[in-house]
């Protein structure tokens, strides 16, 4: 068993994101099967439309955001759980007045990310 204090884990800027950082709370150093990551978006921050080759399970800790999932646009808030199947295009835009924070659980499998928005 391992216990980590979140304040001791670096919060790193997410390449390609806007005002978005993440912490790897549980990574391949502890689990060969899954990773738990914490994402923090400042007001108005977000992630562009992209796909991943692994599925995501997410739980919203605080704030509000608009999440695009395929052809649907959803407003999510604290307490919501979101499932993103592998290969489904998705993006995030945090509310302009408050930050947005969520936990993301993914399998420890190779993940290839393809940015869709902004390709030209």
What would you say this structure looks like, in words?
The chain has no helices and nine strands. By secondary structure, it is mostly beta strands. It has a domain of 79 residues: Sandwich (Jelly Rolls).
Secondary structure: number of strands: 9
Structural class: mainly beta
Largest sheet: 9 strands, antiparallel
Helix content class: under 10%
Oligomer: single chain
Task: Kindly provide the radius of gyration, computed on alpha-carbon positions and rounded to a whole number of angstroms.
Answer: 14 Å
Outline: globular
CATH architecture verdict of the domain at 32-110: Sandwich
- Report the CATH superfamily of the domain at 32-110: Jelly Rolls
Outline of this structure?
The protein is mainly beta. The protein is 0% helix and 57% strand. It contains no helices and nine strands.
Topology diagram in text:
Elements: E1 12-13, E2 18-26, E3 34-51, E4 56-69, E5 72-77, E6 81-84, E7 90-94, E8 100-107, E9 114-115
Note the main attributes of this structure.
Jelly Rolls; 9-stranded antiparallel β-sheet
């Amino acid at each position: 068993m391992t216990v980590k204090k979140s304040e001791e884990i670096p919060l790193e800027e997410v390449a390609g994101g806007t005002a978005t950082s993440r912490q790897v709370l549980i990574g391949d150093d502890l689990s060969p099967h899954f990773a738990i990551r914490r994402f923090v978006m400042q007001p108005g921050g977000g992630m562009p439309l992209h796909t991943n080759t692994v599925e995501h399970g997410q739980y919203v800790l605080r704030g509000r955001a608009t999440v695009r999932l395929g052809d649907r646009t959803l407003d999510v808030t604290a307490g919501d759980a979101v499932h993103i199947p592998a290969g489904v295009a998705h993006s995030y835009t945090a509310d302009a007045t408050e930050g947005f924070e969520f936990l993301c659980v993914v399998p420890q499998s190779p993940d290839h990310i393809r940015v869709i928005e902004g390709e030209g």
